[in-house]
Write a structure and sequence with these properties.
mainly beta; 20 strands; 180 residues; 38% strand
Amino acid sequence: TAGKLIFSASAGDSLYFNGIFNESIDMVNTAAHGTILANGDPVNAFPRLIGYSVTPGDGGLATFDSNNTKSNCITLINNSNFWSFENIRITRYTGQGFRSVFSSFSSRFLNCEVDHCGGTLAFGVPTSSTVIDCYCHDNAGDGFSAFESCYLSNCVSVANSGHGFYGDGGNHYFSCLSKA
């Protein structure tokens, strides 16, 4: 499962996976798997969870689909920091797709999609995180909800019942689109 991959990761690992998964992953205290480099830069130390369609690196999406049987898909909680989520689609969870709890920060989300989730928000972005080329649509609440000091670029939020983009302050949005 994708959860087993996550909990076996070390700093800098690239974890490729494909297929459709019906699981919820609580990433409790997974910061031990990621480290900050000596110069304070975590970028090259991020463990990467990377979806694909046919061949690793093809840019296709791996899918988490609970068929409305589970609440949250991936919960970043209690120091689950320094992760990169790439090429992942999350659909049909009754709660949030990516759920961020206050004690998590500094993650990356690249080419991810969250749709048809029923929570108050669909795509929770931890403090000081980066979100690039992500798509959030047809959710029951807010699309993207970013804690402070986040960078979002080329993200699209459409047909969500709440805000397209919601933030606590100090966030930066570049070439993002929101439409009800």
